[in-house]
Inverse folding.
């Protein structure tokens, strides 16, 4: 193992390289570009024996890895924001074909207005596509999650694509110490991909055939069943990774200072570092407060979140995306876990939208929102709005 202080994008590129993908295809788009730029250089330098395919759009990049995966190759791509939305048609195809493609989404806001900075609207828009989605907190986890993604998706009982979601700029362009494992240890943990079914002239098969009403519903049922199976596989791989490399980030969820907490704050992605700092400050003042990290957004960890949150006095959900006309997406899914008449239901729920379009998430922002929630629970509130801008409407 070697410790390096490197950019998050470079870390991801080095970890992907150690996974030995056979085919990489991507189209440049900020803030994802550095990942595949580094990979292109690694391939060009001969440090990774792989085919790097330059394409004319993100839709084409997704199409290339679909075709390559169907022939039995281990594949990788990366994108963000509008690029992910342009891929969306193909993302559904990849999942429906049960191809274990790995994709890094460098989370970024969706236009319009044009904004290149971070929030989670892109990835959560793809939540129903059939991809497993893992949200990471820091660059070490972003790299480690790439290895875990292949291990999860390529399991013969799963065979689904995996999206590793890392916050654009906040992580992709940040320099942090990252422990780079030895190649031999990665090879031991992640052996070569050997699919049971793939396209070859030696044994012709049909992939993605036309299916009528009498069979289509069964395909979606089987994918849902597999998503449920994936929950235990995600936990298992996280545990095996800890045994092999000594690092653990939770499986589906993770807990911080939560064992005796009356108030629990829930979030995803890099904001968790700031939230934990705020919680540490409140803990030093004698407040019983903790953090629940949602690591797997799909499959959604219903049972684990229910057990973690039941009986709490206050549940406060922070998120960097919303469903316009409804509100917080993560909040809505968490709130649905508890019947209002349930004796296990938390006493109050609050939802705060923050950090949209790259708005800074500060410790004071988090502390102020927690204070507001404990005084007056809110179904939907926005942190650090420019109130003067809103006077008179849009």
């Amino acid at each position: 193992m070697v410790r390096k202080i490197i950019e998050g994008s470079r870390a991801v590129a080095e970890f992907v390289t150690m996974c030995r993908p056979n085919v990489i295809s991507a189209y440049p788009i900020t803030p994802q570009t550095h990942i595949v730029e580094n990979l292109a250089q690694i391939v060009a330098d001969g440090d990774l024996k792989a085919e790097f395919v330059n394409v004319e759009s993100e839709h084409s990049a997704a199409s290339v890895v679909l075709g390559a995966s169907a022939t039995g190759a281990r594949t990788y791509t990366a994108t963000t924001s509008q690029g992910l939305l342009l891929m969306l048609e193909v993302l559904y195809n990849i999942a429906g074909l049960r191809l274990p493609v790995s994709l890094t989404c460098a989370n970024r806001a969706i236009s319009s207005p044009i904004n290149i900075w971070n929030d989670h609207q892109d990835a959560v828009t793809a939540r129903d596509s059939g991809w497993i989605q893992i949200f990471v907190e820091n660059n070490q986890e972003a790299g480690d999650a790439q290895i875990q993604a292949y291990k999860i998706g390529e399991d013969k009982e799963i065979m689904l694509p995996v999206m590793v979601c890392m916050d654009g700029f906040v992580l992709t362009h940040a320099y942090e110490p990252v422990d780079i494992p030895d190649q031999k240890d990665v090879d031991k943990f992640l052996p070569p991909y050997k699919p049971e079914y793939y396209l070859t002239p030696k044994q012709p098969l049909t992939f993605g055939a036309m299916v009528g009403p009498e069979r289509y519903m069964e395909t979606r049922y089987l994918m849902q069943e597999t998503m449920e199976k994936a929950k235990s596989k995600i936990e298992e791989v996280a545990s095996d990774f800890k045994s092999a490399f000594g690092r653990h980030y939770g499986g589906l969820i993770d807990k911080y200072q939560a064992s005796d907490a009356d108030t629990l704050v829930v979030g995803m992605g890099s904001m968790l570092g700031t939230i934990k700092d705020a919680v540490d400050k409140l803990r030093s003042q004698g407040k019983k407060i903790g953090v629940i990290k949602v690591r797997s957004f799909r499959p959604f960890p219903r049972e684990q979140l229910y057990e973690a949150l039941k009986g709490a006095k206050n549940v406060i959900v922070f998120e960097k995306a919303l469903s316009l006309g409804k509100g917080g997406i993560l909040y809505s899914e968490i709130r649905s876990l508890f019947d209002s008449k349930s004796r296990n239901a938390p006493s109050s729920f609050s939802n705060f939208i923050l950090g949209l379009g790259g708005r800074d998430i500060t410790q004071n922002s988090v502390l102020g929102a927690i204070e507001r929630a404990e005084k007056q629970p809110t179904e939907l509130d926005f942190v650090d709005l420019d109130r003067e801008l809103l006077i008179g409407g849009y």
In short: Residues 213-245 form the longest helix (33 residues). Residues 65 and 75 are 6 Å apart (CA to CA). The domain at 2-245 is CATH 3.40.50.970 (Rossmann fold). The two ends are 54 Å apart (CA to CA).
